Amino acid sequence: MGLRGRSCIRSEESKAQWDGEKDATDRLRWYAIRTRSRHEKAVSDQLTVARIENFLPLATEVRRWSDRKKLVEVPLFSGYAFVRLVYSSPDRVRALQTHGVVDFVGVHGSGSPIPDNQMDTIRTIVANKVSLRNHAFLRIGQRVRIQGGALDGVEGILAAEGSDRSLIITIEPIERSLSIRVEGYNIEAV
Questions:
Q1: Cα 124 to chain center, whole Å?
Q2: Model pTM?
Q3: Cα(149)–Cα(180) distance, rounded to whole angstroms?
Q4: Which of the residues in the chain have pLDDT under 70?
Q5: Nearest to 136 by CA among 177, 172, 78
């Protein structure tokens, strides 16, 4: 499964301006937004036009029809995209008004922030085109960190599947996980 991501990133100057104006409770944070079915790419494009920082991790899959095979880019987490904003800012309302956005993921649509390290992990995996597959959401298991190589510092939950060692990367607010093979990597407990 090939990977890439769509994103609109604010400039460092813009980030510093927001961070300098707001206290610790009103800072840029990542949030998951729920989208209408098959609207993830359109939502990401519209958020980019609206200059709202967003990230849509994509995977390339081979789709088969009766007469042909084709490589198709599909969202890694169907039905979800990610935005980075100050929750109390007007950007939150503009994100909600975007065609195809259902609501923020959280209690009663209020939006639960996603830790930066979890988003950094997904971005690192997408950027390095690591082979992966979707995995069932897990709450328990040993938390581990990869040492060395392109995935140095990536954290997740170690899962043993036969003789195959896999690392489960979890995005808790949307209850979704990814599984990557970690054969050949050194792993330490966190």
A1: 10
A2: 0.73
A3: 14
A4: 1-5, 7-25, 135-141, 160-163
A5: 177
